[in-house]
Design brief:
By secondary structure, the chain is of the alpha/beta class. It contains 9 helices and 14 strands. The strands form 2 sheets. The chain has a 7-stranded mixed sheet with strand order 6-5-4-3-2-1-14. The protein has a 7-stranded mixed sheet with strand order 7-8-9-10-11-12-13. It starts with a strand and ends with a strand.
Length: 255
């Protein structure tokens, strides 16, 4: 598949397949090896074809599958040094790291990758822009606040994978403990539907082809609530879809 597809998105695990004409990688590995293999098969991709795993940060829902994928399968892990240290603290036998520097562009085969800093309660969390064949794709979840830096990197993307985690009123009304509510709603937590919509309205441009709304809360959001919030801000001129926790999402084809 020449494009990308969400394999799983949410607090139970996150992973995205990204493929070019010659390269196949994962962005995050937050689901089991078995689940990863099964979901890739739905795309016609064999797990043994995966050449690297690109990691955004060290939280469990983004690295749960690394022990098997990186240690057993020997798939290289691309991450920054601080995140590598945090992963190594819990998985000392794993994995094969290839380090990048946050803020510096690097290449992996035919993919140009730029990791940029985001606001989240991890050691050095990043979003990514990936470029291939003149196409720019932005990936940015797990951020409590869209900084000027985030906005600048997500401009002029042809495709976007962006967090629309919660509806604040649903967070306040939930039975979750106050510490959870403060974390989610804080500037190092997760992006709300409204904040996501405002970000998209600011960076929207006519050539934007497909937006995936990602990392939706299962308790404090609904797909329709997230879609409605974004549609109200940006209209109906661009394809909009939800990245699901349990099933693979819609495919974004580059051709």
């Amino acid at each position: 598949m020449h494009g990308f597809c969400p394999l799983a998105s949410g607090s139970k695990g996150n992973s995205i397949y990204f493929g070019t004409k010659k390269t196949k990688i994962l962005i995050d590995a937050g689901i089991s090896e078995r689940a990863t293999r099964k979901k890739l098969e739905e795309l016609g991709v064999d797990l043994e074809e995966i050449q690297a795993i690109l990691i955004t940060h060290e939280h469990t829902d983004h690295i749960r599958g690394l022990k098997m994928l990186a240690l057993k399968k020997g798939i290289p892990v691309l991450t920054n040094s601080e995140t590598a240290k945090a992963i190594y603290a819990t998985l000392p036998d794993c994995p094969k790291f290839r380090l990048f520097t946050t803020g510096s562009t690097f290449t992996f085969d035919d993919i140009e990758i730029h990791p940029f800093s985001i606001q989240h309660d991890a050691v050095d969390p990043v979003g990514f822009t990936l470029r291939v064949d003149g196409i720019k794709i932005g990936f940015c979840t797990d951020l409590g606040f869209a900084t000027t830096l985030v906005k600048s990197h997500l401009r002029e993307c042809d495709f976007l994978y962006i967090e629309s985690n919660h509806q604040p009123s649903m967070v306040h009304a939930s039975a979750r403990p106050m510490i959870y509510k403060q974390r989610v709603l804080g500037r190092s937590g997760h992006l709300s539907n409204e904040a996501c919509a405002e970000l998209l309205a600011e960076i929207f441009h006519p050539k934007l082809r497909h937006i995936h709304l990602a990392h939706l809360s299962g308790e404090c959001n609904t797909p329709q609530t997230a879609l409605d919030a974004v549609r109200e801000k940006i209209g109906t001129e661009v394809k909009l879809s939800i990245a699901s926790q349990d099933t693979i999402g819609e495919r974004s084809h580059f051709a």
